[in-house]
């Protein structure tokens, strides 16, 4: 373990929690948050920190029951859980902004958009349905998707905008990335649910298709959604008892805040550079001692 000379070891303070468990949602950006937070809490604060992989929806149940202490990246995909646990039962509390703005959308490769500029308006998508057709959606364009647990209104958007498309899940984020790279090599047309921040966006040139603009309330009824996804200030959530009695551990997680560039840097180290999560966290932390120092309880 490497102790950060600029930060110094922190007093863990009074806490009812000997062990802390952090949620790891199934995408590498969320993993990047956790590996850095865990590394600092273990090396700088001498805390026992473990992790559990689960979707956002399941994470809120676990936060409510106390099986986990913190979720460091929520995209707002479980509004009913937030209403129940945060607003009504008050067993889960808002832990503040992660500092990263998330955005989901439909994306095509730039090489296809350059050749067919009007594809970037959803009103013209049916014109290109055959270009995006696959064996999974015969007679229709294929809108690629990732992990089925991700927040998605795509089936409703397709239906309500009368698009001749159907969704097809590729599974894990890594499988989606592999498919993107394969398509780029052969300049194959494709359209996919995708998001920012994502380290791959610096490697592959993807362009967003314009959907009807997001307006407050346009996603309230999942069956009637016919609008774009909003920009989302990604939030942290903590178990309420831990937030109150977790001492310096809880204070650190409330303080934990970084940028899209920070997250992408660590995510790239884990995926493209194939570093171990701990080594990636160590490298980033040692290069950003001032930022880490700002997270540590005073």
Automatic annotation (TrEMBL):
InterPro entries assigned: ABC_Gly_betaine_transp_sub-bd
Domain ABC-type glycine betaine transport system substrate-binding: 19-286
GO cellular component, one term: ATP-binding cassette (ABC) transporter complex
Pfam families associated with the record: OpuAC (PF04069)
SUPFAM superfamilies: Periplasmic binding protein-like II
An example molecular function term from Gene Ontology annotations: transmembrane transporter activity
Protein name per UniProt: ABC transporter substrate-binding protein
UniProt lineage: Bacteria, Bacillati, Actinomycetota, Actinomycetes, Kitasatosporales
């Amino acid at each position: 373990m490497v102790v950060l000379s600029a930060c110094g070891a922190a007093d863990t303070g009074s806490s009812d929690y000997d062990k802390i468990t952090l949620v790891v949602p199934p995408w590498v950006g969320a993993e990047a948050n956790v590996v850095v937070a865990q590394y600092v809490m273990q090396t700088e604060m001498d805390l026992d920190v473990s992790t559990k992989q689960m979707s956002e929806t399941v994470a809120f149940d676990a936060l409510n029951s106390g099986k986990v202490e913190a979720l460091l990246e929520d995209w707002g995909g479980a509004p009913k859980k937030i209403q129940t646990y945060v607003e009504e039962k008050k067993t889960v509390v808002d832990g503040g902004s992660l500092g990263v703005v998330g955005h989901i959308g439909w994306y095509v490769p730039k090489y296809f958009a350059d050749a067919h500029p009007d594809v970037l308006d959803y009103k013209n998508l049916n014109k290109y349905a055959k270009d995006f057709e696959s064996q999974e959606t015969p007679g229709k364009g294929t809108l690629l998707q990732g992990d089925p647990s991700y927040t998605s209104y795509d089936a409703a958007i397709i239906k309500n905008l009368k698009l001749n498309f159907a969704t097809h899940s590729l599974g894990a984020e890594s499988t989606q990335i592999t498919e993107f790279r394969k398509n780029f090599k052969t300049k194959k047309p494709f359209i996919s649910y995708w998001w920012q921040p994502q380290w791959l966006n610096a490697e592959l040139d993807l362009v967003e298709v314009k959907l009807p603009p997001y307006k407050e309330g346009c996603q309230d009824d999942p069956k009637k959604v016919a609008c774009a996804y909003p920009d989302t200030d990604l939030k942290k959530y903590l178990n309420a008892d831990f937030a109150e009695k977790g001492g310096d551990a809880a204070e650190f997680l409330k303080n934990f805040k970084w940028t899209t560039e920070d997250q992408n840097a660590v995510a790239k180290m884990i995926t493209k550079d194939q570093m171990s999560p701990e080594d990636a966290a160590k490298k980033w932390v040692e290069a950003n001692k001032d930022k880490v120092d700002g997270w540590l309880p005073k």
